[in-house]
Amino acid sequence: MQPEEILACPPRVLSQDQRAFYLEKGYLLVDELIDAETIAGLNRVTAAFVEKSRERRESDGVYDLAPGHCADAPRVRRLKTPDAQDKAYWDFACGLLADVAADLVGPNVAFHHSKLNFKWADSDPTANAVRWHQDAPFYPHTNYSPLTIGTYLTDVAADDGPLIVLPGSHDGPLYDHYDAAGTWTGCLSDADAAGLDTSQAQVLAGSAGSITVHNCRSVHASEPARSSTARPLLLNAYTSADAFAYTANPSRSRNDRALLRGEAVRWAHHDPRPGQVPPDWSKGYTSIFAAQAGEEQAAE
Ligand SMILES: O=C(O)CCC(=O)C(=O)O
Q1: What are the structural domain ranges in the chain?
Q2: pTM for the whole structure
Q3: pLDDT of residue 293 exceeding 90
Q4: What is the pLDDT of residue 31?
Q5: Which of 34, 113, 250, 271 has CB 3.0 to 4.6 Å from 143, enough for a Cys bridge?
Q6: Res 149 pLDDT > 80
């Protein structure tokens, strides 16, 4: 759908100004949208997963573990597909957030994937930063409606590794996420990153319960966490139901393409702009952290 068509649909959660802002800038921050009880429930479930990770030695289908992870000092970089790991995460993805997605992509909303990313202040900072990248090359679709909603489960100040986004970059070029040798890096090359105008970069800090939204073309990153609190960021990705994936979902769960709002469609919508195709991850994928750190990428 075109922005005018989306805006013509009645809003569910967001104001018209917030919707128009997202469509123009490619990102949005909504302070404390999620109530404290819901956040507390998600934090309880999350703490139990981190606790259980103490038994694990290697990354697997549930956990992406940072180098140095051990029973005494768990360093989970990512809980994979939380929507499929616990009902609390799935209920959350299907609730208010799906209404937010409908406000931004149009009334027919499909679920794409979820992940729960952590930053640990005392781990290797280089493994802890996320470099400039766009999400579309990780999961190209027939159009660019896919967006990701991040939910801060704790207060995230500028020192805690919040998301950083370049306003308007969703209308700019799609960058190459392979290096000169043809290896997938999951980020812009140093040369492309040096060419970005980062003077306008927006640091999306927010307290617990705040949400961030970024379009799949928006150039974004996050800095290492420097404060003493771990930063759990729950990410849920949605598409307009008329966007169909070209390639295997790198974070596929049983909820892939679940219709969360509106109606199933019989016609795909195609955006004429080209999309980069990632490696074939149909047999396994670890995480953006592993790709950007140059680690082995097919774990499962
Ligand atoms: O966890 C973060 O800070 C950013 C994650 C991100 O950009 C992604 O997973 O695409």
Answers
A1: 3-292
A2: 0.95
A3: no
A4: 97
A5: 271
A6: yes
